[in-house]
Amino acid sequence: MPDIIQLLPDAVANQIAAGEVVQRPASAVKELIENAIDAGADKIQLILRDAGKSLMQVIDNGCGMSLTDARMCFERHATSKIRKAEDLFAIRTMGFRGEAMASIAAIAQVELKTRRHEDELGTCIQIEGSEVISQEACSANFGTSISIKNLFYNTPARRNFLKSNPVEMRHIIDEFQRVALANPQVFLTLHHDGQEVYHLPAAALKQRIVHLFGNNYNQRLVPVEEETTIINLRGFVGKPEFARKTRGEQFFFVNNRFIKDAYLNHAVLTAFQELLPDETFPLYVLFIDIDPAKIDINVHPTKTEIKYQDEKSIYAIIRSAVKRSLGKYNITPTLDFDQENSIGHLITPKPFEEIIQPTIAFNPDFNPFASEKKASDREIPFLRDTQSHQTAIPRNWDTLYEISKKEETLQHQMHEEASIPVNEQEISKSSEKQFFQVHNRFILSQIKSGFMLINQQAAHERILYERFLQQLQNHSGVSQQSLFPQSVTLNSSDFELLKELLPDIRALGFDIREFGRNTVVVEGIPADITNASENELLEQLLEGFKNNLSILKLDKRDNLARSLARNAALKTGVKLSMEEMNQLVDQLFACQMPNLALNGKPVISTFTLNELAERFEK
Asked: Where is the signal peptide (predicted)?
């Protein structure tokens, strides 16, 4: 029997590695920018076309490469970051495996231009599918420029699995934001299809956060700083009132490398305990500096998971540091039994000599029983002086007798209107719908077998959900135009999501148009929604959509209708009139699934007379 184990060709091995390293355009962008940072660049430009599917170009002013290094960087396991196995436990650079460039060159058309500071000419190399097409000297700026064209051109099955341009662009923005937060000292720009998405000058960490997410984040940040013998912790956490429904704005960096760690995330959430509403998550950007020998980052292909030697101590440090910062900046409520602050601020200290004894002025001739009436006094019904009525005789006093004569006929007509047979009166009462609101939360209605309780918020969510779903299918949403259009500024990730959802959002009744970078103008909202600001409504709609997408994996239109229904529905605690309760119940029973809430729980609960009798017989 012949031997069956053989070495794979380099082209096949590179494509297998590419499946782990490069899953989508965002993966390639991450590798290229991290290489530029490892090269010592302080200015990096990212240029994209078709969300990276047609072109991804990274230009930096780093150290550049020689002719030999330019060829070697496309070989597997060729790297300048480590030399021996022990170096794996002292890694400070972003890359160290030496697989990224070889993997990218195996599935794309790559052009590399690079020049070192001391060289007069640079090097230009073109590679397609791991094959070198050309290599020549060229004129180039110092640093490196790498262009990746037609990603997955030779693996069409992988290319077909790519999502739409807005979805892929959101993934690229996520990777770009992580690198930008980890390196605030680096000038970064991002251009997509000829438009500038980000322009981030070198700045402090807080300014970088504001540049990335918007000016309104300037008032949301609470600094965190802690130095111990195990780790050094620094960064910012968000104030509890600005917590969101999704986990999008949560960043952990270990030695400036972005990581995902549910254990450390739990430490931050524990510090916010009893300060956050249910199912909301705070913003945090936290940096952990730790000895590389005490961690292992070579446990996952994407390098986003790390193993620690002492996880429990790190957990306790993060939890206590965040909690102390929240208390230090008066975010958590405090009690001072020595002095009440609200009263202390009202007391203004004065010298003893300036204190004047208060005096009382009174009129000794005042008579409260005097019947004098000034001309300027205004007569108020039922508060007039009784003596004035005795002296003044009202005009047309004789007409009082005419009213007494008409009283008999009017009283007779009233009795005729009120006279209804007993059987007809019982029928009319039984046909009327009687509703009662319990604690402004439930609607109680009598039925033949007993009574039923309806959850008013869940019922309104079901009504709006089916209505919005029908409007999306028929494109029949009605818009209520705003008197003053409102401009809404979003972060880049939410703006890309909004552009993807814009046709369906307009079908719901929103009148929205783009207005500059990351800004839209809302000129109208759905007519079914009242008492909601355009800014909050749009942000809550996108937050709910992202939350449903990560948990339920819903269809886009179903997700959109569900998110808008939850945000626009009546909330618990709203008092309803009899007419409003009647209308709500009628609309609920006109739905296709009236007894099922959006979260899968029942909307209506019935209680029979037998159940009530059993309770009282106990």
From this structure: none
Torsion sign (Cα): 414, 416, 422, 424: negative
CB 457 within 8 A of CB 569: yes
Give the DSSP H or E segment for 446: strand 442-447
Radius of gyration of the chain (CA): 36
Please name the helix (run of DSSP H) or strand (run of DSSP E) that holds residue 111, with its range, or none. Answer: strand 109-115
Structure tokens at 148: 């990746």
Give the residue carrying structure tokens 């209804």: 420
What's the angle, vertex CA 609, arms to CA 607 and CA 615, rounded to 5? 85
**Angle subtended by helix axes 311-328 and 262-271, to nearest 10:** 30
pTM, two decimals, is 0.69
Query: For residue range 67-98, what is the model confidence (pLDDT) as tens digits?
Result: 888 888 888 776 665 555 655 555 666 655 66
For residue 188, the cross-strand partners are 44, 200
Which residues, in sequence order, are CB contacts of 550 under 8 Å at separation 6+? 246, 247
As a whole number of angstroms, the distance between CA 98 and CA 102 comes to 8
Rounded CA separation 544/194 (Å)? 31
446 vs 94, more confident: 446
Rounded Cα–Cα distance for residues 493 and 165 (Å): 13
Of the pLDDT bands very low, low, confident and very high (cuts 50, 70, 90), residue 346 is very low
CB atoms within 10 A of CB 208: 23
Q: What angle do CA 236, 241, 244 make, to 5 degrees?
A: 80
CB 248 within 8 A of CB 493: yes
pLDDT tens figures, 175-196: 999 999 999 999 999 999 988 9
Distances in Å between the Cα of 242 and the Cα atoms of 218, 275, 293, 470, 518 are: 12, 11, 37, 33, 20
Distances (CA, A) of 524 to 128, 393, 528, 545: 50, 63, 12, 20
8 Å CB contact between 124 and 138: yes
Q: Is 197 helix (H, G, I), strand (E, B) or coil?
A: strand
